[in-house]
Amino acid sequence: MATEYYIGLMSGTSLDGIDAGLYDFSKKQARVINFYYQPYSQKIKQKIHALSNTYHAISLSDFGELDSLLGTLYAEACINLLRQSDINASAIKAIGSHGQTICHSPYSKTPFTLQIGDPSIISQKTQITTVADFRRKDIAAGGQGAPLVPAFHRALFHSPTENRVIVNIGGIANVTLLPKDLHQNILGFDTGPGNTLMDYWIYTHQNLHYDVGGHWAATGKVQPRLLKHLKNDPYFSTLPPKSTGPEYFSASWLNHKLAKQPICKTEDIQRSLCQLTAETISDAIQKFAPKTDKVFICGGGIHNQTLLQALKAQLNLPVVSTETEGVHPDQVEAMAFAWLAKQTMQGLTGNLPETTGAKEAVILGGIYQA
Description:
This protein has helices at about 40-50, 60-85, 120-125, 135-140, 150-155, 195-205, 215-220, 225-230, 235, 250-260, 265-290, 305-315, 330-345, 355; strands spanning about 5-10, 15-25, 30-40, 90-105, 110-115, 130, 165-170, 170-180, 185-195, 295-300, 320, 365-370. It is of the alpha/beta class. The protein has two domains: about 5-145 and about 330-370, ATPase, nucleotide binding domain (Nucleotidyltransferase, domain 5), CATH 3.30.420; about 150-315, Nucleotidyltransferase, domain 5. The strands form two sheets. Strands 1, 2, 3, 4, 5, 6 and 12 form a seven-stranded mixed beta sheet that branches. A five-stranded mixed beta sheet has the order 9-8-7-10-11, sandwiched between helices. The radius of gyration is 20 Å and the shape is globular.
């Protein structure tokens, strides 16, 4: 059987770097061929931060330059992946590029979402057809543009013998609820902050980009009053479909909340933020999928042991890595956008209206020919 090689590119809300994965979809069980990670430089991170997480005026020149620069970096990641894999670009059907989210605003008067990283540059420099701008088509169909991974989760992780939940913990956390009975609706939504608030807090007070292993959080104690105050945010009680981003759960959001609370030790705040992520994920699972048999974790949050321990304690369910199903937890989202590119190239829909709120299932993204 001929191979069906696709590349998936993902750079998420944690702003750590670019995940580039090479996958073969020629058989029913997708196959991981290779993976390449390209971290963002501090300069790039600062440029992204300057354009995102804010609604103040930005320079069109800065916007255009970063769009072009990210397109070049994405192309370089693909080229390095192919060189590492010893595979020629001509063997690749397409690249699926998520792009870097600058602003996600599904609740505004005129809903929109914006991801940058010029796909014309990617297709030109790699000489591989590129599919990008997936989220805006779902918004055009009346949806929120997120989450888009549930259809992929269904294709890859569904089990006829157990009710499963897939939890992705990136900057923002999201869940996909996969009932064993395919006649039942699949739910998927953002539960709230994943790593984004913890990353901000440790960078502010420890000058570290993330809490390695959750070690700093482990030195603190959960502050029940603060945690309750944080969980009182209306987003957590809003019914799905719903999605959010770091432009909502931002530094301003956190500092505004902290200003109304007694002063706490910085490590206690970190531990409370960790607990916030764990409890909002577990609350969502217990409310919308009470018959869950097993929970699968992917995304950067899986490396935070304090977070995982808190989540396991809240759920009292088997909580395992997606690696038990053959996909490393750091690769799931890149693989999802490779799969979405395949769907688009084959003229197939990629969204699930029940998860995004769209009026209908649609073919996602734009195709940029090599």
